Amino acid sequence: MSEENFTIEKHGFAGHPVIPENSKHTAIIVLSGGEKSLLPGKSVAKKFASNGYPAMAVPIFGTDGLPKTPDKMPLEPVLKAAEYLKKQPGIQKVVTYGMSMGSIFAILAATEDPDIAGVITVSGTHVVIEGEVGKNTSGHSLVTYRGEELTYLPYTMENGVFEGFEQAYKKEDEVKKAALPIEKCNCPILILASDSDEEWPAKYSAEYLKNRLENANYNHNFKTVVYKNASHLMGMLPDDLRGRLTLKLSSLFFASMKNHPQDCKTAVEESQKEILKFLDKV
Q: What gap in Å lies between CA 32 and CA 220, rounded to an integer?
């Protein structure tokens, strides 16, 4: 697999591959947000690579050819990244890994591509949400596909982002229209969340997705794990210098990191074990 960085203009998707020596045969598409997010996808991809998994960090906004902000972001580049990986020598399976809003794309990609072999979501949501422009919602969907905006759940930031999502999640009719059709995936699924997520009610979302799978009699293995007093940040967090600095600074932004440091540390360690155990069985 090439070590070059991929671009929308040349390849149809932006991406940063991290390929370990003696790679395993399952590749990971890392979807963690924008090119310059607090937790860069490439750093997360390096963490997967340190465990033997070839990984491709695929930004969904904030780079050439993509929206500058998380608004009207196309699903097609993620699908093209998956198609590319499946054709590479030595790659037998492709798994999508979505952190935060990346969880939306991890699930949607697997509903459209039946060959995706697994989905992992960390601190995610259960709906397509409204996009953002600056510090405001956009009035448009976060996601587009085939040139059309996907039905989305509107929310407001007026009283804080968490409260905005909490109130929006109560709008049952609108939630039903914007809900992620996770039961259309064709693979095992791992859903990880915290009961004290600072960004949105991630526990609620995890349980919603679990119920949706159960009600559909989903015919693949799936597992939901909710960690107590943990932060929005968990899963495959990088342990390079950039990653350590990110974790140190995160206590300024994420209350659980400050108030429950040991619970957060445990959640990071245990969630990583869950992810690696899941990948071993894919």
A: 25
Angle (CA) 237 239 241, round 5°: 120
Question: Across the strands, what pairs with 223?
Answer: 190
Can you tell me the distance from the alpha carbon of 122 to that of 193, in angstroms, rounded to the nearest whole number?
A: 6
Q: How far apart are the C-alpha atoms of 258 and 101, rounded to whole Å?
A: 23
List the domain boundaries for the chain: 8-281
Segment holding 92, helix H or strand E: none
Cβ pair 90, 23 in contact under 8 A = yes
- Residues 212, 216, 221, 223, Cα dihedral to 10°: 20
Q: What is the pLDDT of residues 180-223, one digit of tens each?
A: 999 999 999 999 999 999 999 999 999 999 999 999 999 999 99
Beta bridge partners of 222: 189
Cα distance between residue 135 and residue 198, in whole Å: 17
Residue type at position 273? K
DSSP 166-228: HHHTT-HHHHHHHB--GGG--S-EEEEEETT-SSS-HHHHHHHHHHHHHHTT-SS-EEEEEET
Model pTM? 0.95
Q: Which pLDDT tens digit goes with each residue over 26-61?
A: 999 999 877 666 677 888 999 999 999 999 999 999
**For domain 8-281, is the CATH number 3.40.50.1820?**
yes
**Cα distances (angstroms) measured from residue 144 to each of 151, 206, 223:** 9, 23, 28
> Residue 118 and residue 256: Cα distance in Å, rounded?
29
Q: Answer whether 134's CB lies under 8 Å from 159's CB.
A: no
**What distance in Å separates the CA atoms of residue 75 and residue 142, rounded to the nearest whole number?**
10
